[in-house]
Amino acid sequence: MKTITKFTYPLFAALALACFAVLSTAQAVSPTPDGGYPGWNTAEGSGALFNLTTGGFNTAIGAHALYGNTTGPSNTAVGAWSLAANSSGYQNVATGQGALRNNTTGAANTATGFQALFQNTIGDGNVAVGIAALFANTTGGGNTAAGFVAMHDNTTGIGNTRLRL
After folding, report:
1. Are 162 and 148 in contact, with CB atoms under 8 Å apart?
2. CATH architecture, range 36-156
């Protein structure tokens, strides 16, 4: 028993030191993600936040996410082409490929799902959850739609709610 103990502690110590040596050179992501842009902006993906001039506190993750945004602040776009046409709209959240794709100046919209609020341009205060929810909405505001293609054909309606099961 003494022989095992005699070799166990030194072996364990050497193994632990070897692990720490490897960890000190390891990185979580390679290459490291971009970020730390002026105005507290973060962008990752080809063309993400490509045209930004003065807008701050934006997060764009995905190819062409927030591509056209120039001055709009406080937007979050996650997914390829999400909020891609936004120029000065603010406080929008788009999650999913093409979510709020054509929004230009609309504000305070939330779109979650593939092409949710896809055609929205200037509508404010809309909430769309689900694939193509509020897809055709362009100028309508204050609408809430949840479910697969819920309120798909609404274009200018105001203050409507639709839950599609």
Report:
1. no
2. 2 Solenoid (2.150)
